[in-house]
Amino acid sequence: MLPTVDREVLPTDRLSLNQMTTDLRGMQETLDACARHGISTIGLWRHKLDDLGLAETARAVRASGLAVSSLCRGGFFPVASEADRRLRHADNQRAIAEAAELGTSVLVLVCGPAVDRDLEAARRMVVEGIEALLPDTESAGVVLGVEALHPVYTAERSVIVSLAQANRIAALFPPELVGVIVDAYHVWWDPCLYDEIAVASGRILGFHVSDWLVPSPDPLMSRGMMGDGVIELHKMRLAVESAGYRGPIEVEIFNRAIWEMPLDDVLPLAKARFQETV
Amino acid sequence: MLPTVDREVLPTDRLSLNQMTTDLRGMQETLDACARHGISTIGLWRHKLDDLGLAETARAVRASGLAVSSLCRGGFFPVASEADRRLRHADNQRAIAEAAELGTSVLVLVCGPAVDRDLEAARRMVVEGIEALLPDTESAGVVLGVEALHPVYTAERSVIVSLAQANRIAALFPPELVGVIVDAYHVWWDPCLYDEIAVASGRILGFHVSDWLVPSPDPLMSRGMMGDGVIELHKMRLAVESAGYRGPIEVEIFNRAIWEMPLDDVLPLAKARFQETV
Hints:
The structure is a homodimer.
Chain A: E1 15-18, H1 27-36, E2 41-45, H2 54-64, E3 67-75, H3 82-102, E4 106-110, H4 119-140, E5 143-147, H5 163-170, E6 178-183, H6 184-187, H7 193-199, E7 204-209, E8 211-212, E9 223-224, H8 233-242, E10 249-251, H9 256-260, H10 263-277
Parallel strand pairs in A: 1-2, 1-10, 2-3, 3-4, 4-5, 5-6, 6-7, 7-10
Antiparallel strand pairs in A: 8-9
Helix pairs in contact in A: 1-2, 3-4
């Protein structure tokens, strides 16, 4: 299943380990494993901050020498009431502050599902929710990365389901405040993908890789290691680079079998597949 | 979960029972149940023809007095070799002939997945495969209905994943030979849906309804009865009608729990929900 074309090997200093790839591990254990395996960048998740607390996590990350490519996630904008909207807004403000304290300028937004059937209203709330965060974003020096999720998540995770849609939202705001995240797993199916990657030029804040396994019984948990599925990762990486993105590429894999592997097996495998397939 | 707006009730003579809704039942049993419950139209599947054979099925359908809204499915165009392409083409020619013999002018196309990672090549093969069928289509008086499947099926069922894409393919050919099928389950997530329904005007050959359940652990089998999920079916039906489609609306539900219900429960439930939610 691996591509056979001759090509320049991607240097592994582009690899950022997104923490969901090692979801069963503690913060310190993952930081140590990255250091041990020469991985210089990490993508953090907010639920993992509970482990050591925010201040101690920030200290541990600095002590590890790792750069932080992004913090995931803010968002979940559609709400049923004004009270809920205020709670969500305050939580997103905290997420922005956390990103700044953790030393990353990118907060990934998972925009949230509709609270009822009304997708149009939900999508309006996403735009309004982002707009309301811009003062905090600007003062914290953080950029919001709108991540389109695969349409299979529309009902439960995100009404933003295509890169075209993420691009249209980002275009409403200055590029230093709002951009997009391109996650291969979420967008690989899209017939407009390569056009929209070009449209995203100057707005791409992150590129995430994993793979789409076949068969894929559970789309939420069956992301695969790069090379184990059907996504044309190399083609997509070249397109993202043509659009000007040369930053970290996060390996983000939701997959229980990979979570259960020893870190000293997963990290070398991710590095090797990163070079072979991305 | 049901809409509360006052509105004209949809007459049940618009309802066509797609045979996948009663997949565990034999052909004659389903035909009899439709007659018993005043359902005047059926959508047939080719794998069900094995039950009685083609000629006997055609006779049984005529004897039942039911109209046939469509036959599913032709397609699966992307292939790995010229030999495979010829086999697939011949099978699609048979599907066209079967549609004509069964008394429907609509053959639904499920276009097929890529044979390897190359989506672009697969999508070209879809267009070429359709083009090659046009002489048969024309002489049989059958129209090909390109059905966009939900992107979750990209790897295993269809590289055609949005109504925009189906519309672009259909637009390459005369409307009396190629049109599109709008299946609510497959397209409800799409931010361009209502624009593309308008674009499809004059090309819509069928409208299929079911619902998207939450949570939906298995996207292949968790379609729900209309009203049990999150799809804005009524809004979509009005849009499809504004685009000029006034034909049968197929109730097509892949769901084991519904398959296992007695037909004398399923059909009245489908009729009631059809009126309440579509």
